[in-house]
Design brief:
The protein is built from 16 helices and six strands. By secondary structure, the protein is mostly helical. A three-stranded antiparallel sheet has the order 1-3-2. Strands 4-6-5 form a three-stranded antiparallel sheet. The N terminus is likely disordered.
Length: about 400
């Protein structure tokens, strides 16, 4: 398992004195006034001058690799204006049809080249993820338990119990990361998940024996919905960190946070049924809150059982769990490769070797530098990725493979 010893903090990073700018504030003002696309171009210009054609090819690669392809396409339409603005700000200059960094531009680019990977190491470190998780769980557990008790919502109380237990486990995850005990801590997370099932069962039983309406339901609904949406984002973030660090404890938390989102949606459903019970004079609908609480317990139990299986992997084997973000990332990568493949096969069929050579140049070696520095985007591997996707596209009947060549279906 990868040990995460990152101690960088963007708030403690020492800024070097500037040479070509009045001070670091002026340099940062100029840097942040540039569109993100041009900041990426500055990083590319550190290695070589670029023509307009080279810059447009860079934009195309960014549109393939970036999930915000629409923004990149819009930026491409304004490319000439962005290049003029960059020259006016004194960060690049054009000579003989090629763009070069000015001394001030090189200073900006070198600063980004140094700070971006350090900042991303801090953002995607296990310690940062665990600290943020403690904060969110602590705040949300208080909100859910307080408004669950006030509104007499078994579902919200059950969710609050689960989140409160998670606050304790999050603190232990943070301690485990600091003292290299991630796998031991992940065992405790699973145990606390089983324990929280018991707490949820008690809340469910109490509401089953004493059914009644959810009071102040609108406030309870808003609290549950807000907490759920935030935890969906937290789960995605935890998954990225857990995969990057192969950290099972953080991946366990990603699964748990995903469950919190689903749980919050169930609680909202139970509250809506309580509204309906009063509106339609149908007391039996009060049991919808009980059903929501029961499903919450089953979801927690399912997640705990899934993570138990993960503990039986070999110690050196990369940690992995089923997660919505993993499926989304794989789907996005597949789309990037297929869009590239369509462009290659538009005019004539190509062999596997011809495709591999172009794949290496366009999608592997041509990865924009800003994506490499940040560790984000989709950095594809040579050969292996292409062959895997080619076989998949043939199975999906998007591509025809015959006699060593590949065609697009319908061409």
């Amino acid at each position: 398992m990868t040990k995460d010893k990152t101690r960088f903090s963007p708030f403690r990073h020492q800024r070097k004195p500037t040479v070509h700018w009045k001070d670091s504030r002026q340099m940062h003002r100029v840097m942040h006034s540039l569109p993100g696309l041009i900041r990426g171009v500055l990083l590319e210009l550190l290695d070589r001058p670029m023509s307009r054609h080279d810059i447009r090819r860079y934009v195309q690669r960014m549109s393939m690799s970036d999930s915000a392809g629409g923004k990149v396409d819009k930026a491409q339409l304004n490319l000439e204006g962005h290049l003029l603005a960059a020259q006016e700000l004194g960060v690049m200059e054009e000579r003989n049809g090629r763009y070069y960094l000015t001394p001030g531009g090189r200073e900006v680019a070198e600063h980004m080249n140094e700070v971006i990977p350090l900042f991303m190491e801090w953002v995607l470190s296990a310690e940062t993820a665990s600290f943020l998780t403690i904060w969110f769980h602590g705040v949300f557990s208080v909100l859910k338990l307080l408004f669950g008790i006030l509104s007499y919502s078994a579902g919200l109380i059950a969710d609050g119990i689960d989140t409160a237990v998670d606050t304790i486990s999050s603190i232990l995850v943070w301690l485990g990361i600091r003292y290299d005990k991630e796998r031991l801590v992940s065992v405790f997370i699973v145990i606390t998940m089983f324990a929280s099932v018991g707490g949820v069962a008690l809340a469910t039983y109490h509401k089953l024996m004493h059914p009644g309406p959810v009071t102040d339901g609108l406030v309870a609904f808003a609290i549950s919905a807000l907490c759920g949406l935030v935890m969906l984002g937290v789960s995605a973030y935890q998954y990225l960190v857990g995969k990057r660090r192969s950290n099972l404890a953080i991946l366990c938390q990603a699964v748990d946070s995903r469950n919190h989102f689903l749980i919050s949606m169930l609680v909202c459903g139970g509250i809506l049924l309580s509204f309906a019970a009063r509106a339609w004079d149908a007391p039996w609908l009060y049991y919808g809150d009980v059903v929501a609480s029961l499903i919450i317990g089953l979801l927690i139990l399912k997640g705990a059982i899934e993570l138990v299986g993960e503990h039986f992997r070999a110690a050196g084997e990369p940690a992995d769990v089923k997660h919505f973000l993993g499926r989304a990332m794989e789907g996005r990568k597949e789309k990037i490769v297929f869009n590239w493949l369509k462009a290659q096969l538009q005019t004539k069929p190509l062999t596997r070797q011809e495709l591999e050579e172009r794949f290496t140049t366009d999608l592997c070696e041509g990865t924009p530098k800003i994506l490499i520095l940040s560790g984000m985007g989709y950095q594809l591997e040579k050969g292996a990725d292409l062959h895997r996707y080619l076989d998949r596209f043939v199975e999906q009947k998007k591509v025809i493979g015959d006699e060593g060549k590949f065609w697009l279906v319908g061409h």
